[in-house]
Amino acid sequence: MKLLKGCLLTFFITACATSSAPPLQYASLAVTPDLLLSSDWQTLQRFPPRFPKEAVYKNKTGCATVEYVITESKEIVDIQVVAASNKVFGQAAAEVIPKWQWQKLAKHKVPVATKTQTRFDFCYGQTCTLSALDDVCPGKDIVYARGMRMRMN
């Protein structure tokens, strides 16, 4: 029985150690910073991510900067959290980007695959003025997410 447990433990440890993130398709592509701030992209419907419940319960604010590639066919690939004050903010930010209305952009909008970054500031119960997080999460293309607790009677 101990031998079986030892074998299973070794198997799980080995399996976890050998699994890795899929290779990035556009790893060598240079980042075009603040791309979505230009007037060409103003028609893109962007919305903030859901404020992570864990952060609401703990009254946490924070940020995340996410890098991603917009392909010629307006698909979002190679999503990577490059900076985050907390992993829950990075996860929420990475999940929302593919949900933006990319397919509604004009056909000529993305002539070649383009890599860019977006910063997300998560503010709890107040207006987002988190200049202290500028060192943690780089970027001028910022999407603000506000969280607040609702009282249930």
Written description of the protein model:
With 153 residues, the chain is α+β, with helices and mostly antiparallel strands. The protein has one domain: TolA/TonB C-terminal domain, CATH 3.30.2420. Helices cover 21% and strands 23% of the residues. It has helices at residues 2-18, 53-57, 87-96; strands spanning 62-70, 76-84, 114-124, 142-147. A hairpin with a 5-residue loop joins strand 1 (62-70) and strand 2. The chain is globular, with a radius of gyration of 19 Å. The N and C termini lie far apart (54 Å).
Q: What is the radius of gyration computed over CA atoms, rounded to a whole number of angstroms? A: 19 Å
What is the tally of beta strands? Answer: 4
- Unreliable runs, pLDDT <50, ≥5 residues? 3-19
> What portion of the residues fall into strands of 2 or more residues?
15-25%
CATH topology: TolA/TonB C-terminal domain
In round numbers, the mean pLDDT is 83
What's the CATH H-level homologous superfamily?
A: TonB
> Can you tell me the overall shape?
globular
CATH class group: Alpha Beta
Strand order of the largest sheet: 2-1-3-4
Largest sheet: 4 strands, mixed
Q: How many angstroms separate the termini?
A: 54 Å
User: How many helical stretches?
Assistant: 3
The percent of residues in helical segments reads 10-25%
The helix-strand sequence is HHEEHEE
* Integer tally of domains: 1
- Based on the coordinates given, report the CATH architecture: 2-Layer Sandwich
Q: Structural class of the helix and strand makeup?
A: alpha+beta
